[in-house]
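Incident review: delayed structure delivery

Summary: a single-chain prediction request sat in the queue longer than the usual turnaround. Root cause was a stuck worker, restarted by the on-call engineer. No data loss occurred. The affected request and its eventual output are reproduced below so the record is complete for anyone auditing the incident later.

Affected input:
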Amino acid sequence: MAGRIVVVLIVLCFGGFVLYTRTQAEKPPIVTVGPGGATGGTTSQADKFNDPNVVGVEPETEPVFNVEVDLTMNGQQPNLNFVITEQHGWYAGEVSVQFWYVKTGDDGNERQVGAPITTLCRNFLPFNGTLEHKTTPIFAEFPDLSEWGTSENWRARVLKCGKVLAPAN
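Output delivered after worker restart:
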């Protein structure tokens, strides 16, 4: 009896191994694209959040970010679109944006609804440029909401960033 159980377990393990090996073999190879194009160079995950070729100097003051938020609807799916700039035109990598929902009361004062959410932008802010990022909020993140409101209901700020550089003169 115990021998049959062992044989069945061995057969099941072997079948699982064969199935796993077959599904791994069917996956397409991962192609990395770097500065040299598809045939040369590689790009790591960190390179999406930082410019590996950026040259500049560390500024003596803190960056001043401006974040514009626009809510668009794709059917029933909300999209929050962020446009981020830096007042001095500086470069910033690994930019995290925090966003939250506000309601205006009868007294005209804004009140935050729920806890703020943080998202890591999928690119870096180039010198004198803009960083555009999009995220899709879900009701699980904002359980106190019954609707998404309009762009006027959303606020955002740069919570933190990695390397900040001023242009080298």
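Verification: The beta strands are 56-57, 65-74, 77-86, 91-92, 96-104, 110-120, 131-135, 154-160, 164-167.
Action items: add queue-age alerting; document worker restart procedure.
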